[in-house]
Each structure stands twice: as structure tokens, then as C-alpha cells.
Amino acid sequence: MPFLAIIAAALSGASAVAGGIAQKRALDQQAKVKQRQAEQREMEASEAIRRERRQNKELQAQSLARRAKSGVGLTSGSSLLVAAEEASRLELNVLDFARQAETERQGLIYESKSLKHQGSVAMSTGILKGAGSLFSAAASSGAFSGSDVGESVSAVGESVSTMAAPTTKSSNLASLVDRIGNY
After folding, report:
1. 106: left (phi over 0), alpha (psi -120 to 50) or beta
2. CB of 177 within 8 A of CB of 7?
3. Residue 145 is part of which domain span?
4. How many independent structural domains does the chain possess?
5. pLDDT digits (tens, 9 = 90+) for 145-179
6. pTM above threshold 0.70
7. CA neighbor of 17 nearest in space, from 181, 182, 176
8. Which helix (H) or strand (E) segment is 109 a member of?
């Protein structure tokens, strides 16, 4: 009967590890999507800023043409002040847009990094749950008695690290069952 408990624990442990790995992969994929969105946002913002500055130059040229047509002197006095104020206001709008776009991009990058971290935590949690299942079964079956404790812990630890490999295979599970069966 203890042998069946150990097999059940091994399956539960393998399932926990596989679940953690799958969750990490899913979160890593979501992180890649967020990273691509950040890159896309940066490209869109650069293009929008380029277009806005071109439009601003056209507006300034139209304003200059209107002032020239009305006979206002273009090289001194209030006409220069108006032109400078207009240019400053238009560029301030562009810089405000650039700041907003950069804030959005940084938010997407932060989300990407957060998802990657969550994936690492999920995988570690799966590995720890798997190890916990194995240790619990081994302890309840009496595998940890006397001088065999060190050897048992070592065998279970090796088995857990084998299971934690991203390519968990049935041969890893068979090896785990064989090792636990020896104790």
C-alpha cells in the first residue's frame, strides 16, 4: 500500500511541476505580446510625432503668409513674438504627446517584466509542490527512518530536479518511481 501512495505522490508531484512549467510558458508568451505592443506603440508614436511636427511647420508657414499678406513686418517686433509663441505652443503639444506615448510604452514593458516574473514564480511553485508531494508520501510510507534519511532526501531531491526539467518525459517518472521504490 505505501508503494501506491508513493506512485500517487509521484504523479501528483509530476503534475504540479508540469503545471508550473505550462503556466510559466503561458505567462512568458503573454510577456512577449506585451513587449511587442510596447515596440509597436513606440513606432506609432514616432510616426505620429513626425507627422505632427510636419503639420506644425505647415501651420507656421500659413501663419507667416497671412501676416505677410496683411502687411505686418515679419522680421521684428510683435510678429516675431507671435511666431515664437506659436512655435513654442505647437512643440509643447508634440512633447506632451511624446510623454504620454512613452508612459504607455513603459507601462507595457513593466507588464511584460511582471508576467515573466509571475511565470518564474509559477514554475518554482510547481516544483516546490511536486517536492512537497514526494516528501509527504515518502515520510508517511516510512522512507525516512534511521540512517537512510540522508540517502532518501538525496534521492527524492534528484528526482524532483529531474522532474523540473522543461521536457518532463515518462522515463523521468519511471526513474522517480524506481528510486522511491528502493527506499
Report:
1. alpha
2. yes
3. 2-181
4. 1
5. 554 545 555 555 555 455 444 444 445 545 554 55
6. no
7. 176
8. helix 78-140
